[in-house]
Amino acid sequence: MAKTKQIFFCKECGYESGKWLGQCPGCREWNTFVEEIVSSKTAGRKQSFAQNNHPVRIEEVTALEEKRISTHIGELDRVLGSGIVEGSLILVGGDPGIGKSTLLLQICRNLSKDNISLLYVSGEESLQQIKMRADRIGDFSNTMQLLCETSIETIEAAIKDSKPQMVVIDSIQTMFSEDVTSAAGSVSQVREVTARLMKIAKQNGITIWIVGHVTKEGVVAGPRTLEHMVDTVLYFEGDRHAVYRILRGVKNRFGSTDEIGVFEMQPNGLQEVSNPSEVMLSGRPVDASGSAVVCSIEGTRPILIEIQALVSQTNFTMPRRTTVGMDFNRVNLLMAVLEKRAGVTMGGCDAYVNVAGGIRLSEPAIDLGIVMALVSSYRNHIVDSNTVIFGEVGLSGEIRGVSMPLQRVKEAEKLGFKTCILPQANLEQIHKVESDLGDIKLVGISNVLEALDLL
User: Fold this and answer.
1) What CA dihedral angle connects 6, 10, 16 and 20, to 10 degrees?
2) Are residues 374 and 330 in contact, defined by beta-carbon separation less than 8 angstroms?
3) Residues 6+ apart with CB under 8 A from 447
4) Around 108, how many Cα atoms within 13 Å sit in the side-chain half-sphere?
5) What are the tens digits of pLDDT across the range 373-420?
6) Is 243 helix (H, G, I), strand (E, B) or coil?
7) Would you identify the CATH topology of the domain 67-274?
8) What confidence category does residue 97 fall into, taking pLDDT thresholds of 50, 70 and 90?
9) What is the fold, at CATH topology level, of the domain defined by 278-453?
10) Of 266, 302, 339, which is closest to residue 413 (Cα–Cα)?
């Protein structure tokens, strides 16, 4: 019998230690070590899928253009980088009920109609439950097979027998290997199962999708090395009770990680939202203070989003600051700039700032929109509903230029906005490139005081 021993693993980076440590020497995180029992026959085993076992000069390597398969879901193809790469390992994470399994079933439906052989492996649902969801989504061809199993050895045998072109594993936390003695979902099991799936994908050219549960912090449960092992990491964002979902790529070895996909949850599955700007602005109030429309760039796509602010006198010793969809510290910084550089004293006021639509923004180009919304609510002055705002605000109160200004202006013009407030540096840049922008009026500003004068 194989000998077993106790090993402590770091949940963040996978660092191994023979004893428990308060701080991980690898990633310097605290209280991340968990105890597990491993057998000696698997403790030192390494997974290898390299085609060459000797070094070669880079000039001798022939670069091959990867073959991609379209999912027939435009928003998903955009995030993946124009399609699925054969032989890739893709991790999809998100909150429970957000739509991960639904999206993967829709991918299977579309690819099955292209006569691509598929294997859907579920460790959480029965065949009848999967069939019920599949009937709600649409019709499937005979090229799709289902398997309810949690043993990776059985799954490997099924893949070897059926030889599918794509495999879906739902979810990785329910899978286990008989060579590892710890429970399913542990650090050792997740790492071992993922390594074996990666070997299958690379050696046989099979695309494998992995569904991962997330923790309360919003990251995939299990060791952090899971994200390092796979080729692509996709996250579903948004409230499970809301209609819209955001699919964001945080890692992609075959494309950009800046793109996002917008979906709408419908009774028959997730539907693409081809014009997110129009959707995000639907139902916004007219002639209401504290509302401003900003233009943010997600990858190569400009999106118009409404920012709402509510500033009122506080009833507490310490004013409250609440943000939804943006960085809390960034809003505090902008309020300090307003007080120091523009003389707008909001130290005795509660401030609540919200990004409408459930999307989260981190681009500095929304700074000017946040400032205008805050002052609009504080002074009860209305920002024109036909005005779009973008620009970065510095600590000296200056308005700095942002990237891709022409694309932002054209998106605003396409949706019928009449005025665009932007940094003066971007205004000069646009005039050098484009002379005719239609009916939209461009207003360039250099500092926060000029922005407040427009109110």
Assistant:
1) -50
2) no
3) 341, 397, 398, 399
4) 34
5) 999 999 999 999 999 999 999 999 999 999 999 999 999 998 999 999
6) coil
7) Rossmann fold (3.40.50)
8) confident
9) Ribosomal Protein S5; domain 2 (3.30.230)
10) 302
Q: What are phi and psi of 368, to 5 degrees?
A: -65, -35
Query: What contacts 240, CB < 8 A, 6 or more positions away?
Result: 95, 96, 97, 98
Report angle CA 292, 293, 299 to the nearest 5 degrees.
140
Q: What is the pLDDT of residues 18-33, one digit of tens each?
A: 888 899 887 788 888 8
| In 304-423, alpha helices (H) | 328-341, 367-379, 405-414
**The pair of three-digit structure tokens given for residue 235, joined into one six-digit string:** 């996250």
- pTM beyond 0.70: yes
Got the DSSP string for 140-198? --TTEEEEE--BHHHHHHHHHHH--SEEEEE-GGG-B-TT--SPTTSHHHHHHHHHHHH
| Sequence-distant (≥ 6) Cβ neighbours of residue 377 within 8 angstroms | 289, 290, 309, 310, 311
**How much is the pLDDT for 298?**
83
For residue 308 the two structure tokens come to 């709402």
Question: CA–CA separation, 69 vs 164, rounded Å?
Answer: 14
The span from the CA of 369 to the CA of 363, in Å, is: 12
Bridge partners of 295, per DSSP, are 304
Of residues 75, 407, 370, the one with CA closest to residue 247: 75
What is the spatial distance between Cα 385 and Cα 189, in angstroms, rounded to a whole number?
Answer: 54
